[in-house]
Amino acid sequence: MVSRFKKRLLRRKEQRKIALERIAILFELAKKNQDYAKRYIELVGRIAKKYRIRQNFKELFCPSCWRYLIAGQNCKIRIIKKKVMVRCGCGNTITKKFLNIRYKQD
Predict the structure, then answer these.
(1) Where are the domains of the chain?
(2) Which whole-number Å values give the CA distances from 92 to 23, 35, 67, 81, 98, in the listed order?
(3) Which of 41, 49, 85, 94 has the lowest CB atom count within 10 Å?
(4) Rounded-to-integer distance, Cα 103 and Cα 106, Å
């Protein structure tokens, strides 16, 4: 006999799995159709908030205008002094640290 707590936990895991699938589908749709990308990203935010999903999908859109960022089309990417600066078409700038990776020479 399975307790109520375990049943609820299993349901939550299933719901999160479905939510992750939906998020992946919405990002694919946002890549294909820039006209509806803002709406798709809003839906991703709602789904992530409802099911408490924290992923690295924040890098993919502008937090101020909710656009899906594609380098060269609607945003500019610059590397300045170990920082990556992403400037959206709306004027918002996202700055992140850039880690130097040293490759071994053969």
Answers:
(1) 4-97
(2) 24, 19, 11, 19, 19
(3) 49
(4) 9
